[in-house]
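Subject: for your reference before the review

Hello V.,

The reviewers asked for a structural picture of the protein, and I figured it would be easier to keep everything in one thread rather than splitting it across files. Below is the amino acid sequence we used in the manuscript, unchanged from the supplementary table.
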Amino acid sequence: MRMLASPEFRKQLEGYSLTTAEILYRMPDHPSLLQSYIWQDYDLFPDFPVLKKFLDFWERTLEGPLFKVTVGHCKLIKPAELKALGAEFRLH
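And here is what came back from the structure prediction:
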């Protein structure tokens, strides 16, 4: 039996990483109110072509105008990397 790699795994091999965006948009009937939408997909840092394609679709098709987009990606913010510089071993 042959196992096939998932599309997400193949994207990771091509350099894609999981990207999350919080999209704030104005309500079409009440422009003074903001609504939040969370988008998540695999995308390429730093150009984010998949997110840009989605936002272009949004602006062409949906009535709620975009207000703000906040992007989260592992290459934008990540914990500090620690490297061991030496070791100490003690035997009792």
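For the response letter, the relevant points are probably these. The mean pLDDT is 85. Residues 80 and 86 are 18 Å apart (CA to CA).

Happy to draft the paragraph if you're swamped.

O.
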